[in-house]
Amino acid sequence: MDTTNDFTFERKAEMDRLNPAVQAWERLMSSYQNVSSESDPSTRWRQMERIFKLTHTTDQPSLVDRREF
Predict the structure, then answer these.
(1) pTM for the complete prediction?
(2) I want to staple 16 with a disulfide (CB 3.0 to 4.6 A). Which of 7, 11, 22, 42 is the partner?
């Protein structure tokens, strides 16, 4: 996840807690994720070291015909 310098996980957690769509997503995803029996269920997500970064191959975004969707 790329963020700005003023990003905090605490602020994101608060925003997520107040967002009904995020809460619905978290409930759905929790049915697919296993958490160690010793772990707090709220710790499903962990910060990781970046191992890959996708770089743009062109300076211009490609045009997408929305009628295809």
Answers:
(1) 0.52
(2) 22
